[in-house]
User: Fold this.
Amino acid sequence: MKIATACCVGLLIASSFAAAQQLALPSNPLCGGRSVTAFADWPQFQFDPCHTGYNPNEFILGSSNVAKLVLAWQYPGGFWPSVLANGILYVGSYDHALYAFNATTGTLVWKYQISLRGYATPVVANGVVHFGSEKDRYAVSATDGTLLWKYTAGSAVYDPATVVDGVVYFGAGDGVYALNAATGAFVWKFAGFRMSPPAVVNGVVYSAGGYDGSVYALNANTGAQLWMSEGYSSNVPVVANGIVYLGSSDYNTGVVALRAATGTFLWQFKTVSEVFNSPAVAYGIVYLASSDSHLYALNAQTGELLWAYYHDPFSGPSPMVANGVVYAVSYDGLQAVDAFAGQLLWMNEEVYASPVVTNGWLYIGGDASHLPGS
Assistant:
């Protein structure tokens, strides 16, 4: 079945299958068995607070039918990657607004306008949507977009945030912040330089920053430093099964694995050029999208190369995994690759954003730079 080619006009939702009924399903065991939602949703950046990029609850869209995707609906504009909760798709936009769409029909539910651009991916937890813009953090009602609270940080805010146990954690130019998710009240701050969006698991916050991209482990309740591992020029940390995985923007560094409890070095897989995103972890495999034109699959415990898929440079968003398929963005667009064999299953040359896959649907935010006539 032919894919529509106008997907980059705005928000593409593609599926040739009936949407699955939302049921209580297991949370991601890679992330300590915890999740911010009990449903088959995708509520925050890379699915869970550990940023594994793996949805273990997807059983409809997979390697056997991903090539049959068809366009269901689209909304014009330029959008960041989206999140989904309770049948509503939430996505930030280049027009300085946060949008909420009916995930099945594409109908606009509400729109919250801000004066400055909202960055990256929002997060939904306990009926609240959290997102950032410049130095500000916003919390709005997931139902109608009503502003609940706003907090101004001391420096630029780096989305996405992570919400765990009623606390919002986010990175900023001057450190890592923790706020009460219900009220926006300040909880703690760890001073640092250009601290990345954090991963949070088992009472520990992991964030990369400093002048050399070192990774820090912080007590989630107090912000006290537990350990620091220096010099990896790392992106957003990913934590799975007691290991921290760091993609590096340095040449010939690739991905590094550290023990989550201590920061001890475990292994490194070097790539020829930079990695501008975070890896995804699923099935005991680390999936790394590199600007050296390869999507790599590595043994998560040892770093051993399992397979490498060659295409144009993968320098876009982080890859994600669902039901045996790895989705990664190269200069050629969105590609779906078999998670175990490394073979191309499907590609859309009009899409340049990381998707969300859940309940048999594929949701993609389009980049305004690829709009017709731009």
About this structure: Residues 1-11, 16-26, 34-39, 368-374 have pLDDT under 50 and may be disordered. The longest strand covers residues 157-164. The CA atoms of residues 257 and 372 lie 41 Å apart.
